[in-house]
Amino acid sequence: MTHHLPAGEAQAGPYAVDVSPESAGWGYSSLRVLELPPGGAHTFDAGDSEWIVLPLSGGCTVTADDDFGHDTFELTGRTSVFDGVTDFAYVPRDARATVASAGGGRFALTGARCARRLPARYGPASDVPVELRGTGNCSRQVNNFGAAAPAGGGDGQGFECDKLIAVEVLTPGGNWSSFPPHKHDEHRPGEESVLEEIYYFEFAAHDNTPGLGYQRVSPSGPGRGTDVLAEVRDGDVVLIPDGWHGPSMAVPGHHMYYLNVMAGPEAERAWLICDHPDHAWIRDTWPEQPADPRLPLYTAPERSV
To answer: In this predicted model, what pLDDT tens digit does every residue of 187-226 receive, in sequence order?
Structure first.
């Protein structure tokens, strides 16, 4: 199985990226990237999956129709993934949805096969928790738009889905992200959950020179042999059914963005990870140094009164 899909290799029909459980060879996680011209529209059936429509660039209108009614959401969107937090829309399973954009743009459809039908909803940008994770050259920013509630309580409510977990990560040029390497490929209650994961990459250019980065995934044990060392560029996808993943390295001078989509068979929707034993110690050094002063690249807008 090919785990690194350079830009264009996962293209299908109207989608610049179309990763389904069938194409990935797994059971739950999906990602589509839809590019619309000004005035363009696209209709899709949610089928047995729940979806979050997330603007990568531009704004759109999302409508969702099913036996429970008709919902319409106006998404302001953003200029690019490096310019701000975006609002988003949740489309439940068994709905028929349309994404329409007066100005055109690029829109991610993050999906997961699920059993429960939850209501269609609007997610305002002002409600997206923006987290700074790591310090020093391990610093990165996480936009937790579709995160699960923290395991074992703690601050934050997460965004309710049945199976889907999705976040955005922004890594300043020269930094190492997804570090220490970690995994979520074994069912160990309270310690680790089984989650299939998709990474979708974009990079900030410099003087019209495209950016790039590197992604590592290494085997984590018998039957969990995913092994990737890939140069990644705009529009590339890396599929992670198992294994230690990280680091994700941004070359100096070019900020790196990746969209993570996760889902799996666990009864509880939770992001429970296990750090690589050779590198877990790095977390103990983080309190000793400040976060990268370039972060956050931006914050969520203030909630309107």
So the answer is: 999 999 999 999 999 999 999 999 999 999 999 999 999 9
- Distance from C-alpha of 220 to C-alpha of 23, rounded to nearest angstrom: 23
User: What are the Cα distances from residue 213, in Å, to 22, 82, 296?
Assistant: 28, 16, 20
Selection from 244, 269, 259, 247 nearest residue 185 by Cα: 244
Taking the C-alpha atoms of residue 104 and residue 39, their distance in angstroms, rounded to an integer, is: 6
Does residue 273 contact residue 283 with C-beta atoms inside 8 Å? no
pLDDT in tens, 228-251: 999 999 999 999 999 999 999 999
Q: Write phi, then psi, for 207 (nearest 5 degrees).
A: 50, 45
Q: What is the pLDDT, as a whole number, of residue 208? A: 93
The pair of three-digit structure tokens given for residue 115, joined into one six-digit string: 């059993």
Beta pairing class for 49-66 and 105-113: antiparallel
Can you read off the two tokens belonging to residue 305? Answer: 């009164």
Instruction: For residues 239 and 195, give the distance between their C-alpha atoms in angstroms, rounded to a whole number.
Output: 11
Amino acid at residue number 137:
N
Task: Report the run of H or E that residue 24 belongs to, with start and end.
Answer: helix 21-24
Report the DSSP beta bridge partners of residue 112.
Answer: 29, 50
What are the residue ranges of helices labelled H in 208-249?
Answer: none
d(CA 122, CA 126): 12
Please report, for residues 93, 165, 182, 236, 271, the alpha-carbon distance to residue 149 in angstroms, rounded to integers and kept in the order given. 21, 10, 19, 29, 9
pLDDT class of 151 with cuts at 50, 70, 90:
very low
Amino acid letter, 178? S
Q: Is the pLDDT of residue 137 over 50?
A: yes
Residue 22 structure tokens = 């069938």
Q: Which parts of 116-212 are beta strand (E)? A: 121-123, 130-133, 140-146, 165-171, 176-177, 182-183, 196-203
